[in-house]
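Cross-check.
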Amino acid sequence: MSDPRLVLSVQERVATLCINRPEKLNALDADMVAALPVLCSEVERSGAIALILTGAGDKSFCAGGDIAAWSSWAPEAFGRHWVRDGHDAFDRLARLSCPVIAVLNGHCLGGGLELAACADFRIAEAHVRVGQPEAGLGIIPGWSGTQRAVRRFGAQAVRRMALMGEVFSADQAMQLGVVDQVCPSGEGLHAAAVIADRLKSRSPRASELTKTLINAAEGEERERVLESLAGAIAAGSADLAEGLAAFRERRPPKFGGSEE
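Predicted model, tokenized:
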């Protein structure tokens, strides 16, 4: 599944994903949410060493979920599909093997901030405002805005945004650890390219493993992380080669340490 409003390109081992729906402040609808995991798989297959995530225009990085896309849904469908599908898509982005750099080139509110929380690094342009206004609409931050956002930004920053409705400037967001860097308006992509160039000088495999371990420390699906790491070790062992050979030859395997 693809969506023309999510534009993916790869140049010199750096992928860029742009949310191209500026007329709707880059808000996400159900089709865009469904396309996100597919695009993440394309990034993996491309061998990119980093993904830069941004939005079209300078008004909004991402306005979150398009209210028109979910406001008419029955409560059961809202919880079962809209919320769960959003979680699945954002989890896929957060667990991308390469580092993700979010360029907040416009305001980053609600689900947009939850999307930015999936990134490993966040760059905010100077004019950007960051917040979680959901409670003002009578809804909660439903795409891990009370979970992953707390792990990555700290509980108090999330309380101030989600409970008090505070909207932070770019500088305030950096002081609170919500973003990592503030740059002049219009220079976010350049700042991201500088980070991507630095990542090029580092081992992609070591970076992937390090990111995986950091995610596990934060609680990003520890079970999957442990099994994937252990599985990779087992897949490179002589025991696996012997086991497969024995299976093909229909004989008992002779693993290391087995008696002759």
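Strands lie at 6-11, 14-19, 50-55, 60-62, 100-104, 107-109, 121-125, 129-131, 167-169, 181-183. The mean pLDDT is 89. Passed to J.P. for a second look.
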